[in-house]
TrEMBL record:
Name this protein carries in UniProt: Sulfonate transport system permease protein
Organism: Mycoplana azooxidifex
Transmembrane segments: 20-39, 75-95, 107-127, 133-155, 176-204, 224-250
Keyword DNA damage part of the UniProt annotation: no
Stated family: Belongs to the binding-protein-dependent transport system permease family.
The organism's taxonomic lineage, starting at the top: Bacteria, Pseudomonadati, Pseudomonadota, Alphaproteobacteria, Hyphomicrobiales
């Protein structure tokens, strides 16, 4: 027996909605700080005022229209980013020449701030939806590429040797060895990309847009409507939390064969 004694690990049943504990505590702190006067309402309105403003925006149909436009942009860009990220990760992960060609430019793009690219993107693509969706796509494909290609490179050597032993074809090797081994990394990248999609959306919707959550928040900033800005921030937070929760559930179902510590 070691000096640390015997460590016993037992499986615990998951607690439903446990991940909501942090956001609920944050909401409670916000409400208490507002009620006690510790938080200036001019800096951040109290939760009840934000809820009241949100209901008003819903009744007017403003929030629904903004939300629909933003979700369409975000999901379209994310979908394209996933496709390009998977494609580049396969090119880079399965071939050294592919890695030499693909990895460098993508790492350069990874280090380039989106804000710095927006003027050039507007010059090339104009101010329409194409520019916004393109920037979301280019940003969201990076986490997919990095995590998936790293997972491909980390496939255990014994599985590769087994594939050679049983004479799998190239495509059978990709299907039965590479893809299952890369799925955990892919889902990690997908969760990061989903969050990135909402972050980039905030930026691109500030550029000559006439709808969307970013436009709504930008107009509220110009007019000094702090409560509407708070509504937009809460909606973005809920979108991020919901998206991550859905992807966690999907990951759990798809990777149910993995036996992890958790």
């Amino acid at each position: 027996m070691s000096a640390w004694g015997t460590v016993r690990i037992r499986a615990e049943k998951p607690i439903p909605f446990l991940r909501l504990l942090g956001p609920v505590l944050l909401l409670v702190v916000w409400g208490v700080a507002s009620a006690t006067g510790a938080l200036d309402p001019r800096t951040l309105p109290p939760p009840w005022q934000v809820v009241s403003r949100a209901w008003q925006l819903i009744a007017d149909g403003v929030l629904q229209r903004a939300l629909l436009a933003s979700v369409q942009r975000s999901m379209t860009g994310l979908g394209l980013g996933v496709l390009f990220g998977i494609g580049f990760s396969l090119i880079s992960g399965l071939n050294r020449w592919g890695e030499a060609i693909v990895d460098g430019p993508l790492q350069i793009w990874r280090a380039t701030p989106v804000l710095a690219v927006i003027p050039l993107a507007i010059y090339w693509l104009g101010l329409g939806e194409q520019m916004k969706i393109t920037l979301i796509c280019l940003t969201t494909m990076i986490p997919i590429y990095i995590n998936t290609s790293a997972a491909i490179a980390s496939v255990e050597k014994r599985f590769v040797e087994l594939a050679h032993t049983i004479r799998l074809t190239h495509w059978e090797f990709v299907r039965y060895v590479v893809i299952p081994g890369a799925l955990p990394g892919f889902f990690t990248g997908l969760r990061l990309s989903a969050v990135s999609a909402w972050l980039v959306l905030v930026v691109v919707e500030q550029s000559n847009t006439i709808n969307g959550l970013g436009y709504m928040v930008g107009e509220a900033r110009v007019n000094g409507q702090v409560d509407i800005i708070a509504v937009g921030l809460v909606v973005y937070a809920l979108l991020g939390l919901t998206t991550d929760g859905v992807l966690r559930l999907l990951e759990k179902r798809v990777l149910s064969w993995r036996k992890t510590f958790r």
